[in-house]
TrEMBL record:
Pfam families: HTH_1, LysR_substrate. SUPFAM superfamilies: Periplasmic binding protein-like II, Winged helix' DNA-binding domain. Residues 1-53 form the HTH lysR-type domain. The keyword Manganese does not apply. GO terms for biological process: DNA-templated transcription. Belongs to the LysR transcriptional regulatory family. This is HTH lysR-type domain-containing protein. InterPro entries: LysR-type_TF_proteobact-type (IPR058163), LysR_HTH_N (IPR000847), LysR_subst-bd (IPR005119), WH-like_DNA-bd_sf (IPR036388), WH_DNA-bd_sf (IPR036390).
Length: 286
């Protein structure tokens, strides 16, 4: 399959051989074996080079995702066992707005250690064993994982600092404002419906409301003045302190859970991972 994919991508048996460190005849033999197995030609050979047949196009579309997943898996294994590389998985928002600035500061203090961040909103405890660390939201109790608290999650409405606001005496008063919606149907995240429910208020989104499926996008829309978004303290506090965003009322949803730095409890941490863990936990205590 690797030979077939390389020929299809490069358009040449000789180029594929050079990439795979194989002779042209060895690549041709592997492709011929594939054609015998599938009982159909996958390439058309002519004087100008090599082209995929219709069957070859179909086969390529089928195997490319699997090969990409295989390659990514091999990279993760290699990085996990690289003595000077530390791998971390977190949600998109945590990775971009909380973890990234800390990684920059860590790199200045420890230039010999490489940090590789994977951002994925579908993160679950089951995938942590593929990385040195993960950042999980919850109560800190996950079987097989050791968890260290990082930060609480507080959620409150924010908007651009120059957006005019009426008097807001109760959370229900926010319903008259242009609310930027969060579509969290594909992952576990608080939206306006859940936020209002915390204050015992029913809420249904306006059908024409501006809607995004990422915190960072709702945050960006608020910065552009399109309305009020839900702000996670770890994401918006810097902009609020700098005066580009302002809080909308004094209403705060204390989620009652935290984000934790987690790692596999039964697998010892390599020295670089221990250094990163110690530095990161010390940074949140300051």
């Amino acid at each position: 399959m690797l030979a077939f994919e390389a020929v299809a991508r490069l358009g040449s048996f000789s180029a594929a051989g050079n990439e795979l460190y194989l002779s042209q005849s060895a690549v041709s033999k592997q492709v011929r074996t594939l054609e015998e197995y599938t009982r159909t030609p996958v390439f058309t050979r002519h004087s100008r080079g090599t082209e995929l047949t219709a069957a070859g196009v179909t086969l390529l579309q089928e195997i490319q995702p699997a090969l990409a997943q295989l390659s990514a898996g091999i990279d993760r294994v290699r990085q996990r066992h690289d003595a000077h590389t530390v791998t971390v998985i977190a949600t998109h928002a945590v990775a971009q707005y909380w973890l990234f600035p800390k990684v920059i500061a860590f790199k200045r203090a420890h230039p010999g250690i490489t940090i590789r961040i994977q951002s994925d909103n579908a993160i679950t405890p089951a995938v942590i064993n593929k990385y040195d660390f993960g950042v999980l939201f919850g109560n800190g109790q996950w079987p097989g994982l050791e968890a260290s608290p990082l930060f609480h999650e507080y959620v409150y409405p924010v908007c651009r600092v120059d957006m005019p606001l009426p008097d807001l005496n109760h959370p229900r008063d926010l319903k008259q404002l242009p609310l930027i919606e969060m579509d969290s149907s594909d992952w576990d995240c608080i939206d306006w419906r859940a936020w209002f429910a915390h204050f015992n208020e029913d809420y249904e989104p306006h059908p024409d409301a501006l809607t995004f499926n990422q915190m960072s996008l709702t945050y960006g829309a608020a910065l552009e003045g399109f309305g009020v978004c839900l702000g996670w303290d770890f994401l918006v506090s810097k902009a609020v302190n700098e005066g580009t965003l302002k809080r909308v009322g004094d209403f705060v949803y204390d989620v009652g859970k935290m984000d934790y730095l987690v790692h596999h409890a039964r697998e010892p941490l390599k020295p670089a991972a221990k250094t990163f863990q110690h530095w990161l936990l010390e940074s949140v205590r300051m």
